Amino acid sequence: MDKIEAKIRKVFQKNPEREFSPKQIKKQLSKQRLTKESVKRVLNYLHGRGVILKTKQGGYKASAKALKNQQAKDKKNKPLLIGKVDRTRSGDAYIIIEGRDDDVFVSSKFLMNAFEGDTVAVQVTRKGRNGKRDGKVTKIVKRANQRLVGSLQKRKYGFTVEPDRKDLEDFIVNISKARTAGAKVGEKVIVNMLEWGEYPEGEVIEVLGKPGTNEVAMKSILVEHGFDLEFSAETMHEADSLDASISDEEIAKRRDFRETLTFTIDPVDAKDFDDALSLKKLENGHWEVGIHIADVSHYVRPGTAMEKDAADRATSVYLVDRVLPMLPESLSNVVCSLRPHEEKLCFSAVFEMDEKGKVYSEWFGRTVIFSDHRFTYEGAQEVIDGAESPYSEELKVLNTIAEKLRAKRMKSGALAFESDEVRFVLDDKGKAVGVEFKVRKAAHMLVEDFMLLANRKVAAFVNKAQVPFVNREHESPNMDKLKQLQRFAKRFGYEIELTTPKKIAGSLNELLQNVVGKPEENLFQTLVLRSMAKAKYSTSNKGHYGLGFANYTHFTSPIRRYPDVMVHRVLQQHLDGKVKLKKADLEENCVHSSQKERGAMKAEWASQAYKYCELLEDKVGEEYDGVISGVAPFGLFVQILENKAEGLIKTINLPFDKYNFDEEDLSLTGQSSGKVYSIGKAIRIQIAAVNKEEREIDFEIVD
After folding, report:
1. Fewer beta carbons within 10 angstroms: which end of the chain, N or C?
2. What is the distance between the alpha carbons of residues 276 and 364, in angstroms, rounded to a whole number?
3. In a domain, 334, yes or no
């Protein structure tokens, strides 16, 4: 009855001016299957308490005085915080409050159907001894995305779409027949929301097709995570009309590197080459190293449709089998791409260096280049390993300098993450038939080290002037999470020193090195990452903990990241003598870009989860060795060692017992058996079920 009372109170709170009859209240709570008598009993109780009033027509209405008193009480006792929703794989969420380190945890049942990225008002309901805060969403302040994906269903009164996302309980969108866009019942559709209120309404704007195909699944993932599938017509018109020619007048404004040896190093299937390296021996024996970045801001100008679409997307999205680019392909793959044997406009960072990695001078500005050669990572690695090439000496010099830069970075406290990157093997129809693990070699690290150098130096150069700027910020890790990591490490015989920041970084690196090649390697890579704060874009500058840099930004990938475009603009304005961009505008774009970056990452994970389902759908009943990668009250997440696929063993499917969840220790313990299932524990599992539509794999324990 308490639950019924709470739900009826909520109906009146959400509709303070509306009058309800007992029958209408019963209809509002149709899913509760209440009798008319039970509804009347609660209504009479609330009337007696002064919460609601009786009307002359025999109905009930909220008491304005009671509502006002409740609001005042809530405001006094539990102030509301405004933040953005970051949903977890379980459907629960953390509300990220800007400017605060301690996020608010909200269970899925208290989210009011808030979507990923929505801005919400959250009320803290409990603060634990460990400082963690629990809360409930009281209001959706702003929706991050007006579109969702679901299947069209026929109802007695019309059509509805229930979103694919299982975490949106009881959320159904009403669609009139005139707004179905010709979709057939059962087909996946994209819905544009027209009304978010008590009775959500929408319109079908695109029919994706029948569920179950890879194409429909990948498009659904992109829309689900807030990305439009197409550019606006205005953007495509601007891109198609763009003058890509480079005039003598434009070249005259720039530093000319066309006669300096320049090449790119990229993946074999890459088409958007946004960085190149140049090398020239100087008379004093030093080397001039140029880091040349596509000058996207020359083509994408403020006020244009291309600018609007790029700022809104904020990033390219990389799924298993496709890329959704931030810019139209005519720009990302042709006009801006630093393709071999073509003159290109760049924004460059140029350094005078010796082979020990010492920088003697630096220069930043706009340039024109001519790429002499395109290396793949594999081709560059062969040269580093001794193969002959027209540019083998220059490549080896760059590799020597990169090794020195890397050693200095590690010595200054950078963390050495070397986690496996999964690459799916697809057949001619795009279905996953296997996985490979990408191994980072010297060629990958060579490019990375010079990009890090450019990003660090550009940030230091602009921040020194104390002007509005876009930093890539990574704060120090949370001490509570580090202590939890310390406890886990001790179980495996590893020590983590937490007394000073330098000792923390040193012992974390030692841990990461010690687990290489061992069964627990992937576990500790994951746990160390989880203990870290999330990197984000910000106009403040708290340094980058993971890299060990006091100043850091993103300058080197403007084709696929909007913050890099902003950095180019601020840098050029600073070089011109006056930064005109406002800090508030930059910060707004920083927050948006950080949010879209998280959305792109989750979309990538979702596409991988779908492909793992493809890979294992015919393996039901087969057994694998795994490791417990996560623990929650509802079950154990287990990762298969052989292919890194992750699935869930539900608590109800664990060997018969009642299990207690230990949040501090991340474990489930049987009350009778004393059996403990904790993160990092080896386990033998059998694949019980695979659901591609839900992108879920269920495991069972093999005795």
Report:
1. C
2. 15
3. yes
